[in-house]
Amino acid sequence: MLVSCSSEVRKKIEQSPPKEETTVDSNLKTFEGQENIVLLLLPLTGNKKTLGESILNTCVLAASEMRNINFFALDIADPSIEKSQIYDFRNKKPKMVIGPIFSRDTKQFGAIFSNVPILTFSNNSEVNSDHVFACGISPQDEIRTLLDYARIQGNCNFLAILPEGELGDQLIEIMKKELEKNNDGENLEILRYSSISTNDATEYARNSGRKIVFVVDPIVKISELNEVFTLNSVALSNADAWNGVIFAFVDNPEQREFIQKYYSVFGKNPSILDMIGYDIMNVAKQSIESRVSSIEGDYNGSLGAFSVKKKEGLRRDLKVFRLENGQKIELSSKINIENDKIDE
Questions:
Q1: Are 342 and 140 a contacting pair, CB within 8 Å?
Q2: Is there a single domain that holds both residue 2 and residue 118?
Q3: What's the rounded Cα separation, in Å, for the pair 322 and 300?
Q4: Domain of 284?
Q5: Within this chain, do residues 222 and 327 fall inside the same structural domain, yes or no?
Q6: pTM tops 0.85
Q7: What is the pLDDT of residue 109?
Q8: How far apart are CA 313 and CA 328, in angstroms?
């Protein structure tokens, strides 16, 4: 399935992003005579359909502000697509590829589009190369920023209360790795749970003597503890439940402008992936319009200032915030962070 994101989309964006669906074979001819082609690789069917369509909407919104760039989305979840057809798309010489979302797909398509810049939504640094750039935000980005903030405050003394399972394992591995970089590994205490009451978790945290508690579930009474850290996706999911929590994020005029624009079109706030998609689209716009030979450089977008570098992907500037009465209150100046591996 091929979805055109070009001129017709621009005409209709304010009503509803159109999706002109046709077969792959019949639409390879759509590329004939086209210049400045950008190919979007997204899952538009299957169990990841909702995720892919949300990102596509964001890309359509960005495309509505661009001229002389032709965007086409390929449904990489479509089982009818054959590998030979993917090579046909490559032979049309797109200027850039945006997507896929996940690292395993990125590695596959990175090998096919070996001479094309690929801006992937993956946050796995292992996919970075001379032409593949990991653009996702990983928990490692956030945790590194929060730990740097804690060191500046002289509070390197942590208790992580995390659920049993893959997410908890992943976050503990990240925290240990980052603390050991500064020989602070002994300053981390860990409590795992399958279920725990708010009173029990809060009492344990209070009696531990640790200055900072890191959680990803609303299982502690934040107002009764010194400082509580979490991930931005958790904090911003329910402002009432997370009042007083500290997290790493970005807040700038570009982000507020994008959120308002997105809400006016789709009637809801954008996700982090949507913001990443919007910023990636603007990288495509700037690099193609300026006719530069490389997409490496410095940019500014809805997720703040960032740079794109070969073999490094994206580097972003995150800030530390406290959530107070539904508002993000900045606690720190920007801290530069670099994407690192965390699988999907």
A1: yes
A2: yes
A3: 23
A4: 1-137+250-317
A5: yes
A6: no
A7: 93
A8: 28
